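pipeline/complex-builder :: batch 7 item 3
reading input block
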Amino acid sequence: MLHERTITELRLGLENGEFSAEELTRHYLSRLEGPSQDINAFITVTGNIALERAKKSDIDRSKGHAGPLSGIPIAHKDVFCTRGVRTSAGSLILDKFIAPYSATVVEKLEQAGAVMLGKTNQDEFAMGSSNENSHYGPVLNPWDRTRVPGGSSGGSAAAVAAGLCAASTGTDTGGSIRQPSSFCGVTGIKPTYGRISRWGIIAYASSLDQAGPITQTAEDAALMLEVMAGHDPKDSTSIAAGVPRYTDSLANPIKGLRIGLCQEYFDEGLDATTGKLIMEAVAVLESQGAVISEVSLSTTRYAVPAYYVIAPAECSANLSRYDGVRFGHRCENPKDLDDLYKRTRSEAFGNEVKQRILVGAFALSTGYYDAYYRKAQQVRRLIRNDFQEAFKTVDLLLSPTAPTPAFRIGEKSDDQVAMYLQDIYTISSNLAGLPAISIPAGIHGHLPTGLQLIGNYLDEARLLNVAHQYQLQTNWHKLSPPAGGTA
Amino acid sequence: MKVTRDVVEKIAELAQLQIPDGELAAVSEKMSRVLDLVEEMQSADTAGIEPMANPLDATQLLRPDVVTEHDQRRLYQDIAPETKDGLYLVPKVID
């Protein structure tokens, strides 16, 4: 089936004339109207735009102008601004917001020939680990429709897993690409902070936010990242370094590669079966010549606390722009300016978003700034130093992506702290700004389990290389969820 | 840290949010739980550690001082709730 093919395979089919971009797009659009769409992975389907783009792609190809992703149907997380298309960030406050411009990432993928099928569901403003915080309702995990797909890029990960698009974009502030990738059995990479432009991505926590691709394989992730990465004059935090051809180094042997297992990521909070599956994956890499050792990152226990100061603080500043004046929702009949601001924000932000704004405003307020925000930023440097020390003895770090497989819908929605601890293995790399990838590494009962690799700054090529070598030896990434999802 | 209802009311005012009276207790309880989680961080020894705002300690890049953007006021105001003569409208502030 076409939707089971990887980007690499689809490119071949398009090049050989086996099918046209229009046929491929129609195939995906019909799936978006079929039984699999019940997982609620999409907020908006852009069928007409997709067909228009696909037809253009076919014409371009006939003239010999095919781009690297020409005709490949993809979906964007609804946090990426898309010109002329609703961009909601999963929030009621942006429910009627039609973006007047496109994010740099969206433009780059369009220039490479990719066909946008639509916008995927997400936790509101990317705040959440289960996709239950969306104004448009929760996304269901295609492997088991009673379970969450993870978050916040839940729609993007579930859509790739369910064969509703060939690849998708996501953003990752504390694990929002990797944890849903792990829960849905797909590949997701969060690059180095600044590797991909943030311009046109609706901001959550600006010093942590980073975009990345979600795909079936590491090879596809390399293809997507080559297009998405690079300096952007419109984002002063984007890194002014050339983009390597990540696909060129995928075949490198990994003999002698030094992999560190962080002791603190195999703690008592880790589900035993997940731990066992990860150690089986370690054995595969060892058999390929990797040298395994244990390392310690003693600052790990400070990561979730520091994150839940820094991220809310930055969100409280970023979300102050939603005031009902320039764009987005405005309350009915405001009696004065104060009422306009307060009622607009209070009726259109969800509970988790309001909660984080309050915590952030508290951490930044007079009398608390030093004890919270400044302290968290100091802790952040300690976490970064810890990683830099580890990278003196190992090339990359390996861990589970999340402590458990996908949990049930509603299971953690009343226990905020339990939800926050979902990101315990992913959050440190955001605080340090390091690249990390999650790849499928086994089945836990009937649910996928993800393995995380964390690399040094700008070492995405090595992460993709190791992930690809692992995928050459295993079949976990080739498994598809059963039709209808088992309960 | 225990967050009192008074603190929640003050912070909500700063954040331009309305918390109905009936929800104040629940919100302060939730905020307290998050701040308890955050408390763990206080035991880290950060003496002499410079706060970190950017992972790569990047500094602001400069660009040539030339005009690169053009006026798009109409485009941007098209999506505003209420505008008039190129201005954004809000309820009257001064009588």
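note: Residues 5 and 53 of chain A are 20 Å apart (CA to CA).
queue -> next item
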